[in-house]
Amino acid sequence: MASKAKLHPRNQHLEGYDFKRLVAQTPELEPFIINSPVGRPTISFQNPAAVRTLNQALLRTHYSIKSWDIPAGYLCPPIPGRVDYIHHLADLLTDGNENEVPPRGRNIRVLDIGTGASLVYPLTGQSEYGWHFTGVDVDAGAIKSARQICESNGLDIDLRLQTNPENIFRGVIQPDDAFHVTMCNPPFHGSKEQAKKGTQRKWAGLGKGRSAKLNFGGRDAELWYPGGEIKFIARMVNESTEFAKQCLWFTSLVSKKDNLQPLHRILGKAKVAEYKVVEMAQGQKTSRFIAWTYIKKKQRT
C-alpha cells in the first residue's frame, strides 16, 4: 500500500489503498489494477472506468455503500481527499466542546452545497459520524442520481434542487432550518474555455498530450462559474449574512491560495464573528477550506 502522507489521522485511507481487500469486496476492480513504476499495485487514473470502479470499491469496503454509480459525464471525485474535508469539519465542530470528542449522530446537521451526482460528502460523512445531511444542487440530473443512490442503499439524506442558479443559500435554506455546518466544493474555473485549457495543461503535465478529456468527469456547473471560485465564494459570503442565525459555521474549499487575501477582505466587510483557514494535504498536494461564523464563541455551545 502506498502511504497517503498528511491525510487526516482519522482518514481510513491514511495508509493508502489495500487493493487485496478492495478486490475481495469488488472483483470488478481487478482488471484495472496495474503495477506502478516502483512495483506497487495501482490503477491508471487517466482511465475514467478505472476511477469509477475504484470509487465503487472504496465506498463499498470502507463506507458500507453497496450500490453506487453515476451517469456518464458527471464528476467522479477522489474519495480520500473528499473525506478529509469531512474529518476536518468534525474537528471544527469539536473545537470548544468540553469533552473534545468529535460530535456524532443525526442531531448534527450538515448542508452540502453542490452535492453532485456522486453524493460523496453525505455518503462518507454519514458513515463516519452518523450526521444528517442535506444535499443541494442546481442540476436536476445530479439530484436524480443522488436519489437513486439513497434508494439503492436505504439512506435518509434530504436532497433539494436549487431552481435559481443565481442563488446559493437562498431558496434552499428554509425558515425552520438550522445547520451546524455548511460545506462546498465550488467551481474552480471562471469559464468553460478556462476549464478546457486547465484540463489540457493537466494532461500535458502528465505527458499525455493536449487532450481535453476529463478522467474525473464533470459537467459545466461542477467545473466553472462566471468569475471563478472567488466570485462564487463571494456570493456565498454575501448570502450567508441572511442566514447568520441558522448556521453555526459556513465553510468552502478554496483551491487557489491567492484567493485567501481577497476573501479575507470580503469576510471583513461581512462582519463575521470569526474566520478560519484550515489547511489540508494529500501527498504532494495542499488544499484548504475557509470557515466563518456570525455566532460569538461563548454562544456556540
Strand content: 15-25%
Shape: globular
Count the DSSP helices.
9
Main sheet overview: 7 strands, mixed
Uncertain segments? 195-206, 209-213
- The spatial strand order of the largest sheet comes to 5-4-3-6-7-9-8
Rg on CA atoms, Å: 19 Å
Helix content: 25-40%
Question: Residue-averaged pLDDT, rounded?
Answer: 88
Cα(first) to Cα(last) distance is 41 Å
- Topology as a string of helices (H) and strands (E): HEEHHEHEHEEHHHEHEE
- Structure class: alpha/beta
Please give the number of β-strands: 9
Compose a concise summary of this entry.
This protein is an alpha/beta fold.
Secondary structure blueprint with pairings:
Elements: H1 19-25, E1 33-35, E2 41-43, H2 48-63, H3 79-94, E3 109-113, H4 120-129, E4 132-137, H5 140-153, E5 158-161, E6 179-184, H6 192-205, H7 220-223, H8 228-240, E7 247-253, H9 260-269, E8 274-282, E9 285-293
Parallel strand pairs: 3-4, 3-6, 4-5, 6-7
Antiparallel strand pairs: 1-2, 7-9, 8-9
Structural write-up:
35% of the residues lie in helices and 17% in strands. The protein is an alpha/beta fold and 301 residues long. The longest helix has 16 residues, at 48-63. The strands form two sheets. It has a seven-stranded mixed beta sheet with strand order 5-4-3-6-7-9-8, sandwiched between helices. Strands 1-2 form a two-stranded antiparallel ribbon. Helix 3 packs across helix 4 (120-129) and helix 8 (228-240) runs parallel beside helix 9. The chain is globular and about 55 Å long. Residues 195-206 and 209-213 have low confidence and may be disordered.
